[in-house]
Amino acid sequence: MKYTWTWALLALFTFITTVPIIGQKIVPAQRIWDKAPHCAFTDLLYYKNAFYCCFRESNRHVPNRWADNGKIRVLKSKDGKEWQPFALVELPGVDLRDPKISVTPDNKLMLTMGGSIYIMDKLKGGRTHIAFYNKEQNAFSKPVPIELPAEIATGMDWLWKVTWHKKDAYGLMYQAEKGTGKRIVLLVSSKDGIHYNLVSRIPITQNFPNEGAIQFDKKGNMKIIVRCEDNKAGGFYGESSYPYTEWKGYDVGKRLGGPNILITPDGRTLVATRAFDSKGTYTALMELDSNYKLQEVCRFPSGGDCSYPGLVYQNGKLYISYYSGHEKGNAIYFAQIDYDQLFPNP
């Protein structure tokens, strides 16, 4: 096992799971996987007393030959310290990437992942794919593409991350609008995780919206965070109540990359994301303030090609998975933080 520490003083310790972070900016992280040249794009789930971390493995970020096509690796850990391979998902001729993991209402593990077709590093097509874990076979099913109504399907539709609420799966899907080519984000829902229908169009005014994540508060209100490639504006935060057709939207004031969102038991809205400063990029945890602006809470050892975090709250701790290229090669990292140390009770 390898560990990344922020200060030389921490190198004196052989193992640290959490450290007091009041007054600190950087939280230690554990390097949990580096068995492929390019490991990236994580998600994290706590299910039946174990952590599941999924990510893409490949030779490179963008394929230029079939051998470079991504596979989806899933790791499992009972304690967040020792990690073991759990599953490997691949589809011949298809670059699988940006996996997300969830649990269906009938208690099955489900993977959502992009399925892209590249020819000599040029993207020629792509559809989101789904796979379900089969206990008897001890493996995930062969990935199959999601199904969309003809009126919204374009052939290049990316359902980024699925969140189950009650008996429905909800996700933010980005695409180029028919007729205009403008990048838009749609809220879609499904009963089975495969067949999706339109719920509403997200009223995003920033340019080039894309990757987005969903969470629900205790009252069933939906809260979303969306990356926008707009040099003059930040990412998008939105709120809606059932049936999720009317929206309030805000510019969060910061540029995002691969953002994830979490509503904590005490009502805080946290966002883990790629962040940017004068020195470059890094992975950070932020909190949405009362003015709907993101404020940095802490950051993790990272740099360059990085972020795409998974985010879990469990038993008074926050757990974060992410990838980074700040050490040799792109690797997968895991950090845990005592919630009360992050947000002390007044």
TrEMBL record:
InterPro entries: Glyco_hydro_beta-prop_sf, Sialidase_sf. SUPFAM superfamilies: Arabinanase/levansucrase/invertase, Sialidases. It comes from the Bacteria. This is Exo-alpha-sialidase. The lineage of its organism: Bacteria, Pseudomonadati, Bacteroidota, Bacteroidia, Bacteroidales.
